[in-house]
Amino acid sequence: MSPSLSIALIGHGAWGEKIARSLGNVSRARLSAVCDPSAHARQRARAAAPGVRVAARLDEVLDADAAIIATPPESHARLAQAALEAGLDVMVEKPMALSLVEARRLERAAQSARRVLMVGHILEYHPAVVELRRQIAAGTLGAVRLVISERLGRSPTRHESAWWSLAPHDISVLRFLTGHTPARVALAGFGGSDVAAARIECREGSLGLAHLSTVDAQKVRRVVVVGSERVAVFDDLNVERRLTLIDADQIGRARLADVVGLGRDYVPGAHGAADVLDGVAPGRWLVAGAGQAIHVAPRAPLELEAEHFVAGVLDARPVQSNGQSGREVVAVLEAGQRALCEARPVEVALD
């Protein structure tokens, strides 16, 4: 019989419940305990997973092989470090920490303990995103000019800003797809902290733009990659056409050149909350229904992410979204926060 990994799930809120269900579909994973300080959450955990030990304190579940941290972001670093120091391998939800100092400390703790530290950048395991990365690496899109992200919707239960809540997805996807390192960030906010517009310049020359909102009536989960030969559209809400490739000629090469030029000149916040991405917004220039839909495997990203973590621990394989990756995402988030406060672009701390 192949070995299994006993996992303590720390945090049984809405996302923790999804993780618990996903683990039931992951071979070689065994949910051994659930920890949550909320009596209501513990009651739900007992009902959802009879026979699994449920506890209120972290120290009651540290006899597991590994821990998955799915608590509010402000406790990620503290709980992950405690689990690492107790000898557990750890997967922690994004962001891994709320400061670069904490992220560096956590990365060092994993290295000192010789434990796996993986960050839950779930889109790096999404079949459509993985296929898009393969298409980019194969040269199908030509030279990547621009990556545009739109992540909009209503999130009434979130307490963190749109930038800290949503941008980790788009920063990790930008890094994953291009293999490039973000080096400079400009950020504007609207409506307090509910809406954000970002410009992320990479050291290697690629550029990412993002429109993020936790108060938008329309739900959007879209990443558009503009290449010299094709445009790729990853639309996570379009079940039939999650990934589409569009020839540049279908849109018009002159039109695409204009979009890239507008992207290069884009200043977050210059056009206000009603027109966050201005002429770069994909809705203004994408041709509806155009392009070829690319088939991707209908696997749940959360299960694939958990499988990757389990394999990383049991098979001693390097994990994709490791501590360094998570720390670099936090570095971008922190630089963006400074850029917002100081109303100027800020360099990302790359070490």
Can you describe this structure?
There is one protein chain. By secondary structure, the protein is an alpha/beta fold. The protein folds into two domains: 5-115, Rossmann fold (3-Layer(aba) Sandwich), CATH 3.40.50; 124-293, Dihydrodipicolinate Reductase, domain 2 (2-Layer Sandwich). The protein has helices at 14-23, 39-48, 76-85, 100-113, 127-137, 162-178, 248-251, 253-265, 282-285, 301-314, 323-342; strands at 5-10, 29-35, 53-55, 66-69, 89-93, 117-120, 144-154, 182-190, 195-202, 207-213, 215-227, 230-235, 243-247, 292-293, 346-347. The strands form two sheets. The protein has a nine-stranded mixed sheet with strand order 14-13-12-11-7-10-9-8-15, sandwiched between helices. The chain has a six-stranded parallel sheet with strand order 3-2-1-4-5-6, sandwiched between helices. Helix 2 links the parallel strand 2 and strand 3. The longest helix is centred in the C-terminal third of the chain and has 20 residues, at 323-342. It starts with a strand and ends with a strand.
